[in-house]
Amino acid sequence: MDCGMILQCVGISLVGMLIAAAASLVPGLHIYNVIALTMVFVFEVKELFPNMDMMVLTSFMVGLVVGFSMLFTISSQFFQPCDDSSRYIMLPHEKFLFERRGHEAVLLSAVGGMVAVFFISVAIPIFGTYFSGLRKILTPHLYWIIGAVMVFLLMTEWPKDPGTGPTPLKKMFDGWGALLMGYLCFVLSGLLGVFTFFRTTVPVDSAFQSLMPVFVGLFAIPSQITTILAGVRYPPQHVAKSAEVYAEDVVRGSASGLLAGSFASMIPAMTPGPAMLLSGHATVTGGDRQFIIGGGAGRMMYYVGALLFFFMPGVFLRRGGAAINISLVFVPETDAQFYLVTGIIALTGALSFLLVFGYSRMSIWIARKVNYKWISALGMAIMAALVWHVTEWQGLVIMTTATFIGLIPNYWHTRRINLLAVLLVPMFLSLSGLGGDVAQALGIF
Amino acid sequence: MTSAVRDPELLSSCPSCGMTIPRAAECCYCSGATSPARRVSEFKLALAAVPALVIALVLLSLAWDRETPIAQSADLTRADAYDHVRVTGVVTEVEFDDTDYDASDVFSFWVKDKSVPDGDPGLKIKVEGLVLHKIMDGGLLPEIGDTVDVEGAFQAGRNFRQIAVKTAGMVRIVERGKPTPGAVETD
Known about the structure:
The structure holds two protein chains of two kinds. By secondary structure, chain A is mainly alpha-helical. Helices cover 74% and strands 0% of the residues of chain A. Chain A is globular, with a radius of gyration of 21 Å. Chain B has four helices and ten strands; from the N terminus they run αβββααβββαββββ. Chain B has helices at residues 3-6, 42-46, 49-65, 129-137; strands spanning 11-13, 20-22, 40-41, 84-97, 106-112, 123-128, 147-157, 160-164, 171-175, 184-186. A five-stranded mixed barrel of chain B has the order 4-5-6-8-7. A two-stranded antiparallel sheet of chain B has the order 1-2. The radius of gyration of chain B is 33 Å and the shape is rod-shaped. The chains are: A mainly alpha, B alpha+beta. Chains A and B meet through helix 1, helix 5, strand 1 and helix 14 of A and strand 3, helix 2, helix 3 and strand 7 of B.
């Protein structure tokens, strides 16, 4: 490949990484929402510069994804504190925040992300072709694997009430209340997913972004609303100059995260959340540090590793929103393109890892100066505007519907993981050959 | 706090949460380890980026160095179907199928290299739609007699073999030339 082309691609990928850093300041904003907006920009650029090599724009997107995967959880860490009145479970990184060591949690997560960058840039080029074989083996079994994951999610729901009601009936109601609301979340999200997959109302021109309003509504907006309504105050954060991290935590946490990320990369409809839940059980990870490191590794492996498979000669696996969007403008073909993308991942991964140290300090400073409720309100406005811009009013209607479903877990103390039925159910139905029949029975096909 | 702990000599700051604590192996507030031996400094953590940068350089130099090997078109068989292949040779025939829709226009040309026997036009190269128009806009449409270097996905079936070009940059004109004897242009 031409040296000038490589330099152009590297340069534009760094721009992508910096834009990801800026966008990551908006808590709850998902990488795929940014990509959706980027695609609108890409189409404009494509018209303006018809002779521009699409590899350059692809490199920009790769830099964007890598930067975002490393940085996007930092703002959520400091700008969306857990409110115990609206959430039953406090995750380890939230616990760290209330122990004044949110910065240390960020460092641990970044360590996991960095391990994943090493894995992606070294192991995938060497062993990646085996994934092609694995994919062939898995393909006929995908439907029941997804079905088993759904059963696992439903089985692992548990009553959150401590059982202190005055009467047995009240105790039973308290116990089953959260359980049933969890199942209700699953059913409603599943129905929304079937509707989205089989007959979305998103305009045809934006059909490639039909999941965007759904995800913003289910996950981002409810988090923003909860944060705005929250009354929680967290203590001032200490910027630790060192982190308590042991080799065992790095190895076990990263292994769990990489396993989760790889699983999510290979199985459609799977995301790092349920994949981490599964791999955490499978690898018996223990302790807060392993959980946080695993989360960092899993996210990087899922978003970036899956994207690299798209460029891998002989594999060309199109998984995840980034690969799907890039495939609209670019067709990967050669070994040189694969090595270029892998090199860009290693480079932007390393640089965004270095950014983490300052980025976390900056986030702590912002959280000290600006009320996090205002940040969430701004984030909500940005996301609603994005949805409107990309998917018009139809998208806003879908987003509002999804928001009502997405608020259920916050106010009935169920897990948000049930909301992922929005992907799991329609994918399970499609892969098992029942999708059309079910959609027809529901009157939406 | 006991009177003994009020002694500044016996107090320290937790490196994890920054709280003032009695000297101990673990913080009484956050349970973080206080001993430097059990902690990794930010500087040492940041050093992890160095090997990643080295790996990035190696991979980018591989991208610079790596070229698709040139295949002899006669050697390409159905076993190579869907592989990304590269051939070089002289254009012997061209064919343009102009449709009502730009996105459906098809341009085909045949490339003959040393492996192709006399009388055979060579391997068919197919370019269509937006890729074709991008090549046309750049003035790089191959003509009969040109020496070209082409890369694309090899497609093969019963009695047909062709390379489908998916990216405009994969059709490179090495040398503009004169029509070869017996060359055919169709429309």
